[in-house]
Every structure is written in C-alpha cells, then in structure tokens.
C-alpha cells in the first residue's frame, strides 16, 4: 500500500514539475519574441508596417486598404497589434 501511494505521489510530482517547466519555457519564448519585435519596430518601423500590410493583403484586403489599416492601427499600439496579428 505504501509503495503504491509513493508511486502515485512521485508520478504526480513529476507531472507537476513538467507542467511548471513547460509554462515557464513558453513564457520565456514569448518574452524573447516580444523583445525581438520591439527591436525590429525601433530599428525598422516602416519595414514592420510593410510587413503588417502584407499580412492584411494575404488575408484578403485590397493593398491600399491594408496599408491604411496598418498605418492607423500601428499609430496606436504597434507592439500589441503586431503580436496579436502574428498569432492569429
């Protein structure tokens, strides 16, 4: 009985540690991606706006409208907008 309980606790602890590592690994990956995007926006804002425009064109907007949408949205929160657009 004691061996079974010990095995159960050890398995549960192993799964919990694995989940903890997984969650923190994803958070670290997201933080690195945000840092990279922040750098790209600072170094080449126009290029990032063109990239966002291209994303909207690929999603079906006319190029002129895609450019207008990208310009207006990036004027408010370029980092938040770029992050949300790339994940969707």
How are the SSEs ordered, and which strands pair?
Layout: H1 2-43, H2 45-58, H3 63-87
Helix pairs in contact: 1-2, 1-3, 2-3
Report the order of strands and helices: HHH
- Biggest beta sheet summary: none
End-to-end separation: 50 Å
Secondary-structure-based class equals: mainly alpha
Count of helical stretches: 3
- The count of β-strands is 0
Anisotropy-based shape = elongated
Point out poorly predicted stretches: none
Mean pLDDT: 85
The proportion of residues in beta strands is under 5%
**Helix content range of the residues, please?**
over 70%
Which value, in Å, is the CA radius of gyration? Answer: 22 Å
Q: Can you give a write-up of this model?
A:
This protein is an all-alpha fold and 88 residues long. Helices cover 92% and strands 0% of the residues. The chain is built from three helices and no strands. It has helices at residues 2-43, 45-58, 63-87.
